[in-house]
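Changelog-adjacent note: as of this version, every example in the card shows the full chain rather than a window. The one below runs 51 residues end to end.
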Amino acid sequence: MGVTIEVSEELKERMDQHVREDEAYEEFLEELLNHYEAEGESLWEGYGGEP
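Full-length structure tokens:
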């Protein structure tokens, strides 16, 4: 069963700039989350920790 996530038109346009022609939004988001989970801890370094 799928879930629907609503995003603004502006965010969709931003994602469209990065999604490859042969790539589904789900694949793009999964790749983005994988990257965030692998590198996420270092993203907050120097900012005093997670918000």
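Structural remarks: Residues 12-40 form one domain.
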